[in-house]
Amino acid sequence: MKTRLFLMTQIFPFGKGETFLEAELPILAQRFDHVHIICENLKDSQTRATPDNVEIHRLSKQLSTFQKMTSFSKLYKAEVTKELGFILSNQKASDYFSCIKVLLDSVQQSEQITQYLLNLVRPFEGDKLFFYSYWLTNDSLALANLKRAIPKATCISRAHRWDIYFDFHSPPYLPLKKYIIKHLDKVYSISEDGQKYLEAFKGDRKISNIEISRLGVFNRFDLDIPIPSSENEVLRIVSCSAIIERKRVHLIMNAIELLPDDLKIIWYHIGDGPLLKSLKEKASLIMAKKPNAKIIFKGYLSNSVALQFYANNQIDLFVNTSDSEGIPVSIMEAMSFGVPGCGTDVGGVAEIISNDYNGFLLSAHPSPEEIAQSFVHYSQLAIEGKNQLRLNARSTWEKDYNADKNYSAFFDELLLL
Asked: Long-range contacts: 204-211, Cβ < 8 Å, 24+?
């Protein structure tokens, strides 16, 4: 019997997003006879190559005006009635209407997706079917519905960060989590923090179907570990993220501004975004008054080019100042090169950065002074201390975030469900 997997994505393999799937897809394609990617990106061209046994479908999930207007007809459904009770018990009265609108639109959209999938799989009913949503979103809700229609199918979802935590949304609500978890075979959180949060929605299940399956990255470079720290008494740091408010990249710049004049530093930032122009302007002012500081914006780099950058340069610290995270793939990538991490204690960051073991764990809302102190602390370590941090960073990657190991184990387990 052939194995056939249907993978639900938002962007991949089009545009720039979901770069982490670039590591996962080759292993996935090796484990299954045929893979279908169902992607909601309709506008961008394909930017990532896919294996020969992968077929791509583009699906519009937009609701028509008529569908939105008639969504109130879904109020009769049993799961919706239960969810209304959850909203009334857990949300502020001022958010009732907004939450109910989100709920009804989600139900309408998920039913549309479920019907699309049912039509898509009809020619393959003789195959062993697997459905995998990369995010715990309306795609997962559609798979929960589909599991009821095709009980023999295996239906799972990953769960990351924004698709788990209510507080990142306005109103602070994500629909039908308890229903989704109840009907899927498994939900795989990428972090312990996410798993703990989702356990509240497992309901009366005696055995939880919420497990941890960590993401991972490849490192195909032939490296001598530890890669030496930077030379000439220059501290070289890197950050990699979109330049948006949530990433708080400006805190790194504010920290550099506070460094003593005898500490030479080069900061590379990989990534772009709407706040890039203002950061560049401030960077020019800082470098004009601090000759010991050099700030280089690398812009957007493809994943392969970013990894090559680590391989070709001596980097001392990777810095992440985001106000929310799952477990950042960018930290995994840096640690695979033996680069210690310096990150905020949000989401699952404390699961990858252990303070003074493989880097420095900042407070959730660090001041520029706190960040600057971590830079000074690293710079003052003896070479033996720096090398130990670097060995430990590489070891963390090898043990917990190696894509070969993590994704092979993930799909081997999936085939047994």
From this structure: 205/181, 209/181, 209/184, 209/185, 210/181, 210/186, 211/186, 211/187
For 375-390, the pLDDT digits (tens) are 999 999 999 999 999 9
Q: Which residues contact 113 (CB under 8 A, 6 or more apart)?
A: 8, 59, 61, 138, 139, 142
Token pair 């229609």 in the structure block, residue:
149
Q: Do 374 and 272 have their domain in common?
A: yes
Over residues 12-39, the pLDDT tens digits come to 999 988 988 999 999 999 999 999 999 9
Q: What's the CA gap between 255 and 261, in Å, rounded?
A: 13
Question: What range does the domain containing 113 cover?
Answer: 3-216+403-416
Distance CA 131, CA 396 (A): 31
Identify which of 393, 46, 35, 6 has the alpha carbon closest to the alpha carbon of residue 223. 393
What is the percentage of the chain residues whose pLDDT exceeds 70?
A: 97
Please compute, for residue 189, the number of CA atoms within 13 A of its CA located in the half-sphere on the CB side: 25
Distance in angstroms (rounded) separating the CA atoms of residues 198 and 68? 29
Give dist(CA 30, CA 188) in Å, integer. Answer: 21
120 shares a domain with 81: yes
264-323: pLDDT as tens digits: 999 999 999 999 999 999 999 999 999 999 999 999 998 889 999 999 998 999 999 999
Number of domains in the chain: 2
Domain co-membership, 87 together with 137: yes
Q: Which pair of tokens denotes residue 222?
A: 């032939």
pLDDT tens digits along 308-341: 999 999 899 999 999 999 899 999 999 999 999 9
* Per-chain mean pLDDT for the chain: 94
Q: Which amino acid is at 268?
A: Y
Residue 377 carries which side chain, given as an amino acid letter? H
**pLDDT value of position 134:** 98
State yes or no: pLDDT of 200 exceeds 90. no
What's the CA gap between 36 and 129, in Å, rounded? 11
| Residues 6 or more apart whose Cβ sits within 8 Å of residue 128 | 1, 2, 3, 4, 154
Q: Are residues 408 and 363 in the same domain?
A: no
Query: In sequence order, what are the residues at sequence separation of 6 or more whose Cβ sits closer than 8 angstroms to the Cβ of residue 338?
Result: 223, 225, 226, 227, 390, 391, 393, 394
**In the predicted structure, residue 397 carries a pLDDT above the cut 70:** yes
Which SS3 state, helix, strand or coil, does residue 69 take? Answer: helix
Nearest to 315 by CA among 359, 372, 354, 357: 359
